[in-house]
């Protein structure tokens, strides 16, 4: 699966969360922590993961996630890319 497709999906879903909170997505950097910045809360993060799993067709096991690296758009994109590659997707 192409990283560009994953990145666009991550940014699209985060953009929707930002819009609902009145945050300009242009103000959200790829290395910004989406939890500590308030862009999403823990429930929003779980919802984001569920939406990405459905859209990308990637089985996401939350137990396999490294919480330190998946809370930024760049880290989440890379983790999804690595997961998809490991499963031949």
Annotation keywords:
3 helices; 89 residues; Non-ribosomal Peptide Synthetase Peptidyl Carrier Protein, Chain A
State the fourth-level CATH superfamily. ACP-like
Structural class: mainly alpha
CATH fold annotation? Non-ribosomal Peptide Synthetase Peptidyl Carrier Protein, Chain A
Largest sheet: none
Describe the structure.
The chain has 89 residues and is mainly alpha-helical. It has one domain (3-84): ACP-like (Non-ribosomal Peptide Synthetase Peptidyl Carrier Protein, Chain A), CATH 1.10.1200.10. The protein has three helices and no strands. The chain has helices spanning 3-21, 42-56, 73-86. Helix 1 (3-21) packs antiparallel against helix 2 (42-56) and helix 1 (3-21) runs antiparallel to helix 3 (73-86). The longest helix has 19 residues, at 3-21. It is globular, with a radius of gyration of 12 Å.
Layout of strands and helices, then pairs:
Blueprint: H1 3-21, H2 42-56, H3 73-86
Please summarize what this structure is:
The protein is globular. The chain has helices at 3-21, 42-56, 73-86.
């Amino acid at each position: 699966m192409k990283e560009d497709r994953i990145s666009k999906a991550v940014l699209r879903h985060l953009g929707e969360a930002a819009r609902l909170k009145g945050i300009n997505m242009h103000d959200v950097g790829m290395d910004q922590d989406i939890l500590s910045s308030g862009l999403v809360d823990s429930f929003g993060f779980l919802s984001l993961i569920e939406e990405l799993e459905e859209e990308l067709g990637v089985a996401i096991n939350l137990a396999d996630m490294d919480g330190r690296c998946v809370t930024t758009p760049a880290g989440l994109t890379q983790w999804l890319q690595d997961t998809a590659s490991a499963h031949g997707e």
